[in-house]
Amino acid sequence: MEYLLIFISAIFVNNIVLSQFLGICPFLGVSKKIETSLGMGAAVTFVLTLSTIVTWLVQKYVLDPFGLQYLQTLAFILVIAALVQMVEIILKKVSPSLYQALGIFLPLITTNCAVLGVAILVIQKDFTLLESVVYAFSTAIGFALALVIFAGIREQQSLVKIPKGMQGMAIVLVTAGLLSLAFMGFSGLEGGLKTLFGL
């Protein structure tokens, strides 16, 4: 039940973008079309889950035993950068259209603070490897969900007339704020689930 709680909490209650405000750059940049946001969500899910596994292993079996915890940020950034390069090469060969659609935002996964943030959070929360994988995967699903919902809203906004003063980034930021408020409605869900399952 603890894994279910981590899963639901990471997607809805503590959504990485809408509650913790990590990963805003791709959230605003790649959310113009649902197709592109789905691709970005899949790429982030793969990188986030894989990088969390590798960084957890690096922390527990390299940094901690040798007293090199002060190199955590540098080591994690190097691991994430290598994984993003791998995803970029695979996407270029497997799906050139998706690679073109993601454009500059694919290399930006390297500097996406959500990926680094989750890698550091699982260490701070002292999760086991399985808990870390569940947390990373569900956080990535929450990121993708927020991205796809936001892309759908932005596609609808392109079909309606928006007042001149609100066009462009103004309406995008207002919409992001309203979506964040909507996700705050899930804040009582975590406590309810803990009570229900007696955790």
Descriptive overview:
The chain has about 200 residues and is mainly alpha-helical. The protein is built from 9 helices and no strands. It has helices at about 1-15, 25-30, 35-65, 70-95, 95-100, 115-125, 130-155, 170-185, 190-195. Helix 1 (about 1-15) runs antiparallel to helix 9, helix 3 runs antiparallel to helix 7 (about 130-155) and helix 7 (about 130-155) crosses helix 8. It is globular. The termini are close together. The model has no long low-confidence stretch (mean pLDDT about 85).
What characteristics describe this protein?
single chain, 199 residues, mainly alpha, 9 helices
Layout of strands and helices, then pairs:
Blueprint: H1 2-13, H2 24-29, H3 34-63, H4 72-94, H5 96-102, H6 113-124, H7 129-157, H8 169-184, H9 189-197
Helix pairs in contact: 1-7, 1-9, 3-4, 3-6, 3-7, 4-5, 4-6, 6-7, 7-8
